[in-house]
Structures are given as C-alpha cells and as structure tokens.
Amino acid sequence: MEHTNKKTYYYFYTPSHLKNFLKEELKKFRPQWKFSYSKGALLTYVEEGENTLNYQPVFAFQGGVVHWKSTSREECEQFIFKQSDKDPKIKWGIFSMDDQLQTYIVGTVKFRVKSFQHDTWNENQSNEVLDKSIPSRAYYKIQQIHEELNLFHHGEVAMEFGSAPGGASHFLLQKGLKVIGVDSGDMNPVCLNHPNFIQLKKGIQKITAIDLKEIAKLEELKNDVDWIVSDMNLPPFIALKEIRQFIFTHKKFPRKGLVLTLKMTKIDMVNHLNDIELKIQQLKNYRIHFMGILPGHHQEFALVALRQ
Question: What ranges do the domains of the chain cover?
C-alpha cells in the first residue's frame, strides 16, 4: 500500500551499537521526525506532511524516503521498475523489515556511505582479526576514509597527531605520502624504518617552532604540510582544541585539508555535533566534506574538511 501525502516515512541503517546515538541525533536535530520501527540495522521514522529529508545523519550509513511497503518482493520489484521509467536517475532499494514475516519496504537511496553495503555488511565486519603486518586498527580507519573519498596522493605530506603505534602512518606511507608522526609513544619499526617517515616524539601541545624548522630542513619533507590527520584518543572538543591551537600558533594551515576521527564515548556528546562543525568553520577556508561513520570505527566518526 502506497503512503499518502499526509505522512512521510524515512528509513536509516546504522550498526546496532550506534542505534542510540542515531536516535539521540534525530531527537536533537530533527524533532519533527517521530520514531516508528526498528529491526536489526534498520530504523524508520515518520513525519507529518511532505518529504523534508534535507538532513544526512552522522550516525547513519544509508537513508532515504519510503515509498512502498509489501509482503511480496516481486511487487516491490515491479514498483521500482515502473518508477525507474519515470526518472532513471533516482536510486531505489528494497529493504527487509522482518525476514520471518517477509515484509519489505521500497525506498529511495538519498545517501549511502560506500564502505557499507547493507546487503553484505554484518555486525562483525569491524571486529576482524588484525593482520600481523598492520601496527594498529587505525590503518583500516584511514584506509576506509581514503576509499570513500579518494583523498591521498603520492608525494603529499601528512602530519599525524596521535600516530603511535603507526596504523594510519603505515597506510599513508604505502600510498606514497611523506609522514610526520607526532606522538610520545613508540612507533612500529615498519614506520620508523621507512625513509619517508619522521617522528616528533612528543605530544601535540609540546611542539615548538624549532621542531618545525628542523623538519623543514629535511629533504624528504621539504614540502609544506598537505594534510593534518588525527586519531588521538581524546574527547572530540579536546582533540579539536589541540589541533586548532597548533594550527593557529604555528600558522600550519594544511594545503589540502584535515582528516580526523573523533571519539563519542558518551551519548550526550551527540548534542554538540553543531559545535564541532562550528569549530571547523572557524578555521576559515575549510569546508566539511564528510562527517559520518565507517565500518572500522566503533563509537566514533570521521570528519574530513577540505580547503577551499
């Protein structure tokens, strides 16, 4: 049965451990959307009136507008076939609400994080055994961000805060970047022994102008910083404060952008997503290009801001 114009239904997919984060986010930023249904990774919401899906939640990896509901998958396929004739540019999907009852919904795909595929993704995807050649899971985080947005290129220079033991640095080195790792912890030899890697063995707040001048003298790192990358184990506002203070103090505005993973250890942090965006906007000349979850991230999200 097709929905009337009096109500609009939306669907979203999110990992089960982030469901409450998504619910809190929509409660805060889209209070007119009322929770309707939840099963597995799927949640649906309803709004009185016409479709106003002009918001992409940070804690959902796919979402859209529901247009049809049926117990017959064949009927759903026929519906999509007819709609595709009207506008072939619109992306459609069939989503199972209940496998036992064989209930399906048909919806448009308004957004989808490419790293997630709802038909192949599973809850254990982010708990895979770490490859022995990889220093840490940060490797997979930065890999997923790159595959999502195709950010990094050979010859660029990245400065990574919170680099130890070296997962993200290892990936960046494999992509042909030159990396300055900033961390008081020990780096994995796979990074330390790489000719395009140098470590500042100190915390971000202890970096001095002399440190940066010494780095600038090195032939392999003579270019200015293209990227600031951070996977610091700090609350979002503290991490952003340290990064902003470094940028303004040392006038180190990255030429390409910032790639950050921000930890959301408490659900009430969701209420401050707008404040996080504002902190980035205050850097000037940077625009948030991506802000969302990725499979390898647990209670955290990725934020990518590109220079304009």
Answer: 7-112, 138-307
Tokens of 59: 């804690």
What residues pair up with 180 in beta bridges, in sequence order?
Answer: 159, 198
Please give the pLDDT value at position 89: 85
Chain segment 100-147, per-residue pLDDT in tens? 667 889 999 999 888 776 544 555 555 455 677 888 888 988 999 999
Average pLDDT taken over every residue of the chain: 87
pTM above 0.85, yes or no: yes
**Which CATH number does the domain 138-307 belong to among 3.40.50.2020, 3.40.50.150, 3.40.50.11740, 3.90.79.10?**
3.40.50.150
The proportion of the chain whose per-residue pLDDT surpasses 90, expressed as a percent, equals 55
Query: What phi-psi label fits residue 74: left (phi over 0), alpha (psi between -120 and 50 degrees) or beta?
Result: alpha
Lookup: tokens for 148: 């999502």
State which residues of the chain have pLDDT below 50: 1-4, 119-120, 127
Question: Phi and psi at residue 58, in whole multiples of 5°?
Answer: -65, -40
Strand order in the sheet with 286-292: 197-200, 178-182, 157-161, 227-230, 257-263, 300-307, 286-292
